[in-house]
Amino acid sequence: MKPKPIYVEIEVQDDVEKVWKYTQQPKLHEQWDLRFSSITYNDKLPGENMQTFTYSTKVMPGIQISGWGESQGTHEKASGEKTSALHFGTEQLLSPIAEGKGYWKYMPHEKGTTFLTQYDYDVRYGVLGKWVDRLFRPVMGWGTALSFDVLKRWIEAGESPKTQYRRFFAFYAICFLFAFVWFYQGLVPKVLTQHPLEISMLTQLSPLTAAQGATAVIWIGVAEILFACCWLVPKLQKPLLKLQVIIFPFLTLSAIIAAPAVAIAPFNVITLNVTLWILSIIGLLLHEQLPTAKSCKRKRGKAA
Fold first, then answer.
1. Where are the transmembrane segments (predicted)?
2. Which of 78, 119, 169, 213 is 20 to 30 A removed from 235 (C-alpha atoms)?
3. What is the pTM of this model?
């Protein structure tokens, strides 16, 4: 079955000319569109309507994909609606995309502009490329939608894309850090090694015997590993941050009561938990202003 084209639609509370400017001028476009690091227009020949350009995308430090594009013309209806068609591709084998086509449409209305895109592409590497595209295509759709929301916030609120993306990636770096911390704390000192200090603190705070404490520590470790996995679910991240703001002071106090010596040990529970508590607060503050792909429609006729 042929995969469906990528479709993204968003409402921008500003006039069509401003949306057109921010999406058609290369130096503005490359700032908000996560899919491109740079866009360079080539000089047009006299009387030529087609605009050609080159683009590049940084995959990781030291590695980038470059390609070509053709803006195949625009037209404006009496209603003020505009359309920009696009043909694009790359010769670089690192890219799963070989060549594609799509369009941008701008539809003005009383409250602003409906800005939408639909595009599709052919993949390289035959059957293998099609299998890779089952993962790659949803990522491309998500990246397009996230970029559209960044554009919307830039036009409506004046906040630069760089600031928005810095906040976005800082938030998810914090979430991945929490996932790592809880996973490590559950797996290594509790499940794999059953560190004596873990068992000792548990038996000090409960009526469990040493043997029972050793078994309980394993189950606590499993619970922490599952808790770590929850950090990878976007819908759960805000509630988890709120939970940590509440529980870290209690976890710190419990550890000190169970084993007072841990408070003066190098890299001790106080410094660790206070750091994680502050990061939880920072994460909550960042979350309130995050750009999100959820603000876009991903199917025609569907709500965002």
1. 169-188, 208-233, 245-264, 270-290
2. 119
3. 0.87
pLDDT tens digits along 10-69? 999 999 999 999 999 999 999 999 999 999 999 887 777 788 999 999 888 888 999 999
Helix (H, G, I), strand (E, B) or coil at 58: strand
Using DSSP's 3-state secondary structure scheme, residue 302 falls into coil
Q: In angstroms, how far is the first alpha carbon of the chain from the final one?
A: 26
Would you say residue 304 lies in a domain?
no
* Same domain membership, residue 207 and residue 102: no
Q: By C-alpha distance, which of 214, 281, 199, 216 is closest to 248?
A: 281
Angstrom distance (rounded) from CA 88 to CA 70: 6
**Which of 159, 183, 208 is the endpoint of a domain?**
159
Q: How far apart are CA 9 and CA 286, in angstroms?
A: 25
Question: HSE (CB half, 13 Å, CA atoms) of 124?
Answer: 11
